[in-house]
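Re: weekly structure request thread

Next one in the queue (150 aa):
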Amino acid sequence: MDKLFQSVALVQHSESTQIQMLLRWQANRNRWEFIVGDRLNKESFRESVTREVAWQLNLNRKSDFLVSSMAQLSIEYVETRPDESQQHIAVSFYNVHIYRRVVLDLLAQDPSNRWLSTAEICEGKTTDGQTIHPRIVAWINKWTVVQPWQ
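Done, posted below.
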């Protein structure tokens, strides 16, 4: 049975009263995606998401951001594919908070980054019609990881 063990980074900041989450453009897939860490060897889910956030955003894990000590949600299940094969899936969602305003400004300057509202995320597309990773959107909606009005 195939395994898929991933951690999803909910990189966020609050602007006025609404939470926004950072997604990255994946040109080869033509969609916005969350930062996702595949769990390696004996690495914890938290370690994998910390590694990926630091690497993909080119941030210092000690001074630029904080990954919550516990997952917002961890779930494990077996999924049956259309070809009747099965996949063991374990996924954890971690809140990630950016520490400093200068880091937020740097992230905003990179065109491959985009801050999206929770409404856009739950809808699965941006206000200008661009797609957000459908599998993660399905997980978020199925397990109510975020609410559209947050």
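The first helix runs from residue 45 to 57. The radius of gyration is 15 Å.
Next request, please.
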